[in-house]
Design brief:
The chain contains 11 helices and 10 strands. The chain has 295 residues and is of the alpha/beta class. Helix 4 packs across helix 5 and helix 6 packs parallel to helix 7. Bound molecules: adenosine-5'-triphosphate. Keywords: ATP-binding, Nucleotide-binding, Transport. This is ABC transporter ATP-binding protein.
């Protein structure tokens, strides 16, 4: 970090994304670069969970990748603790991995099938030159933190269910005590009851460690569970951003209202009411568009 950036940004949130533009280069049938993020601004404070919702293709994963220094940033900035991280070399990115970690969607492909759980969790510790005894202690502590028995250490990923594998992935992300974890749809591949338990685990871990999350999901109900603030993304732009309860229960933007009404609810009568509300909302939006001559 340069002195000038750290001094001039004193007191700013942990992560500040400011007017971020990401463009994927032209390739194959695409003759022009594709602008996946069109001037996105959000911030995350230490210990906070910011949920990022939007439909498939809206740019959520691209934003998560930008925070990990893995997206082709062409404008704006991503600052972590005052340091610009949008354009890091591979070496600088590796150094930052102590502080920013990631949990991916697929618990089946994100763990190396030939490594025991102990080897998986000890890998980042070994890179940090932790002694074998300390590493073994840390692995037991991590397993305990994510609710797995210590004898899980000697087993292989294939011996675990999807939910348990996601717990192992979370333990791996926690190994170096990061300050921020990018969670990219971490419960989408799990059944509903397992989702709820893993979401509770994310919440407990945040309370215990003070880690911050950028929590990406297409599902408003999922981000509602643990987000202090929620950002809604639509076609590469943030269309609504604010208090988590407000955005997920009484949103202002028509796109968020549509997302909310599209989310299934277990009660069939409420579900039918939602369908009717959704139809009315779509009709009134269509009318407004016609009046404005937009269609
Ligand atoms: N490597 C890439 N090269 C070119 N275009 C890409 C690349 N990755 C993503 N895109 C495009 O950028 C847009 C945003 O994709 P992104 O994966 O960020 O969306 P998303 O909201 O995370 O969707 P999903 O939930 O389906 O993963 C999409 O139109 C996608 O096709």
């Amino acid at each position: 970090m340069t002195e000038s950036t750290s001094a001039s940004r004193a007191g700013e949130p942990l992560l500040v994304i400011d007017d971020l533009v990401v463009e994927y280069p032209a390739k194959g049938f695409r003759k022009q670069p594709f602008r996946a993020l069109k001037g996105v601004s959000i911030d995350i404070k230490a210990g906070e969970c910011v949920g990022l919702v939007g439909e498939s293709g809206s740019g959520k994963t691209t934003l998560g990748r930008a925070v990990l220094g893995l997206a082709p940033v062409t404008g704006g900035s991503v600052r972590f603790k005052g340091q610009e991280i949008g354009h890091l070399s591979r070496k600088a990115r590796r150094a930052l991995s102590d502080e920013i970690q990631v949990v991916f969607q697929d618990p089946y492909s994100s763990l190396n099938p030939s490594l025991t759980i102990e080897q998986t969790l000890a890998e980042p510790l070994r890179v940090k030159k932790m002694s074998a005894a300390d590493s073994s202690k840390r692995v037991r502590k991590l397993l305990d933190q994510v609710g797995l028995p210590s004898d899980a250490a000697d087993r292989l990923p294939r011996e675990f269910s999807g939910g348990q594998r996601q717990r192992i992935a979370i333990a791996r992300a926690l190994a170096l005590s990061p300050e921020l974890i990018v969670c990219d749809e971490p419960v989408s591949a799990l059944d509903l009851s397992t989702q709820a338990r893993v979401l509770d685990l994310f919440k407990d871990i945040q309370e215990e460690t003070g880690v911050a999350y950028l929590f990406v999901s297409h599902d408003l109900a999922v981000v509602r569970h643990l987000s202090h603030r929620v950002a809604v993304m639509y076609h590469g732009e943030i269309v609504e951003y604010g208090d988590g309860d407000k955005v997920t229960s009484d949103p202002d933007h028509p796109y968020t209202q549509r997302l909310l009404l599209a989310a299934p609810v277990p009660d069939p009568i409420r579900q039918e009411q939602r369908r009717a509300d959704r139809r009315r909302l779509l009709e009134s939006q269509r009318e407004m568009e016609l009046q404005a001559g937009a269609v």
